[in-house]
Structure formats: C-alpha cells, structure tokens
Model the fold of this input.
Amino acid sequence: MAVRIARIYDETAGHRVLVDRLWPRGVAKAGAPWHEWRKDLAPSDTLRKAFHSGEIGFDAFRNAYRMELERAAPPGVDGADVVLVTAAKDPARSHASVLREWLEDG
Done:
C-alpha cells in the first residue's frame, strides 16, 4: 500500500482520508474533498494539545502517539493508493507523518 500525505487544499489522486480529530474550519461537510473521515486515527485531545502548546516536542509527541496507536490498534486504511489528508501547516512534522510511518510499519 502506498501512503502519501497532503494538506486539505492540495489536489491529489487516490483514496483521500481526513485524519484530523477536528473538522477543518471553513470546509463544508457536504461535498468535502475526501472520501472518509477517520478521526479514530488522530491523536488524543490531551496529546494533541500538549504538542500544539509546546509542552512536548515532536520526538516526545511521536513516541506517545505511536504508543496510543499500538494500544488502541485502530483498523488501518484500505486501498492501494491512500492519501492521509490533514489541515496541519507542516504535514511533515504532524501526526499524519507519524501515522504514515505506523501504517507502513504494520
């Protein structure tokens, strides 16, 4: 399975899966530019808030998020060409990049 990451406004081919816990501001649910919303794959609110406030750095966030994914063992995403869609300004240093690693490792 090929897993890519894109911002919500990027036009990309593939099965687009929104992986943010919160619905992006300014995007109507009707006609949203992705195929499914998997908020169960997003980090917990506590972990997300600690990372965004600067309480923890990216490495600590990455380790804690991977532990959450292992504990919860949410089902992965199906498809040959999956695009993890996020509203994060820097997708490379976001939960989407950690999720991609976890999906590819599993």
